[in-house]
Write a structure and sequence with these properties.
- This protein is an alpha+beta fold and 394 residues long.
- The protein folds into three domains: 174 residues, no CATH class; 70 residues, Arc Repressor Mutant, subunit A; 104 residues, Aminopeptidase (3-Layer(aba) Sandwich), CATH 3.40.630.
- It is built from 13 helices and 18 strands.
- A hairpin with a 6-residue loop joins strand 12 and strand 13.
- Helix 6 packs across helix 7.
- The relative contact order is 0.13.
- The mean pLDDT is 94.
């Protein structure tokens, strides 16, 4: 078992995430390298100051532009939208690992008979017309869908996407345009066999992927394990025990945390390196609400002493901070949270409020890094001006 003190654990996670010291990732290649390391980036369509995947990447990839991610998804098709931790962005090469999800939706999806009845019609229209969105189909009949009633055209497109018959070809804002997978994905991707003989093998692969995505995880119920099919406490215990016995993960003891944590065996070198006292350049970054680092918020509380809740679904009268508030990382510490809005009509970045954590002082060093970070964030959002009056340190 590797033993770390609290500071060493923070260093390890942040170095693993590319959030401490010089930038590890740069440009389009950096995006691909980061996705390869973490497995997936959770997608969310809400765009207050950048969508969640864009916010994740801007904090790690030097020179990141939103167009880079769009190109990799819908032009170069090296990345693809699909399910991993909920709806996510994954490397196209990982498509084969989710064959069982596609098979499940072929046989068990809601509204299956209704979708099956128009499947060939939809495919023929896409073959003739190219990419289309649900509004392009004149199928106004509604069916019971997962959250509420919806048009049959939308349900059919989503189901065929779940099955892998369609991909998201491109997007216009939040509108998805679908097309036939066979027209855009290489044969070796479409015809690849499922590499997992059993669901347990698949679960092992998914857990390794989630540990890699965060850096350290414990064997307990966590949002970090969302959307791993058939994954309950017994499965989780069996998976962790098997991965440890196979030498794929190692145990890590962290000062002040009674539970055993786990890291990838391949990270042993980095775990030993963080015990050295070398100083690393401090960076300030605004973090995404659904950032990979934040997937297990109880773990973040235990290691970083930072209690973060995404209050977007909290009634306004009950919010402690705000609708869309980003954690602020400075060096090895979460020093607070910030509310920032991209006013697209005026091309202005509105800096509404900064809440500093208890005991954090607004020193000249902190203010200097904050100014630089806001300017960089404004450029990321393609804003021409920044408005703050001045920042209200709360």
């Amino acid at each position: 078992m590797i033993t770390l003190n609290n500071f060493e654990a923070r260093k390890f996670i942040l170095l693993k995430q590319g959030l401490l010291g010089p930038y590890m990732f740069s440009g389009k290649e950096g995006i691909l390298e980061f996705v390869d390391q973490v497995g997936c980036i959770q997608f969310d369509p809400i765009d207050i100051c950048g969508k969640n995947p864009e916010l994740v990447l801007q904090s790690r990839v030097e020179g990141f532009k939103k167009s880079m991610l769009y190109d990799l998804l819908y032009d170069e098709r090296k990345l693809i939208d699909y399910f991993d931790k909920n709806l996510s962005i994954i490397d196209l090469r990982d498509w084969k690992h989710f064959a069982h999800i596609r098979e499940y939706y072929r046989n068990h999806s809601r509204g299956r008979s209704d979708v099956d009845s128009i499947e060939q019609e939809i495919k023929q229209l896409l073959k003739e017309n190219g990419p289309m969105c649900s509004k392009d189909f004149k199928m106004d009949r509604k069916i019971d869908w997962y959250w509420s009633e919806t048009k049959l055209s939308r349900a059919a497109l989503e189901t065929l996407y779940f099955r892998g018959d369609l991909i998201v070809h491109h997007k216009k804002g939040a509108i998805k345009y679908y097309d036939l997978s066979e027209k855009h994905l290489p044969d070796d991707i479409l015809e690849a066999e499922d590499p997992h003989d059993t669901m347990f093998d698949h679960q092992k692969w998914r857990v390794l992927r989630r540990i890699a995505s965060v850096g350290l995880l414990w064997n307990k119920s966590s949002d970090a394990f969302l959307y791993i099919e058939g994954f309950n406490a017994k499965n989780r215990n069996d998976v962790f025990e098997t991965l440890f016995n196979e030498g794929k993960i190692i145990k890590v003891s962290v000062e002040g945390i009674k539970e055993t944590l786990y890291a990838l065996k391949e990270d042993l070198k980095l775990l030993n390196e963080v015990k050295q006292s070398a100083r690393l350049k401090k960076r300030m970054e605004f973090m995404a609400p659904l950032d990979n680092l934040m997937w297990d918020r109880k773990l973040i509380k235990a290691i970083f002493d930072f209690d973060y809740k995404w209050e977007i679904y909290t009634p306004e009268s009950q919010r402690k901070y705000g609708y869309y508030v980003l954690p602020v990382l400075f060096g090895t510490q979460f020093i607070g949270r910030i509310e920032v809005i991209n006013d697209r009509k005026r091309s202005v970045l509105l800096v509404k409020k900064l809440w500093l954590e208890n005991g954090v002082e607004a020193t000249s060093e902190l203010k200097s890094h904050l100014t630089e970070c806001i300017e960089r964030f404004s450029k990321f959002n393609q804003c021409e001006e920044i408005e703050m009056d001045p920042i209200n340190f709360a």
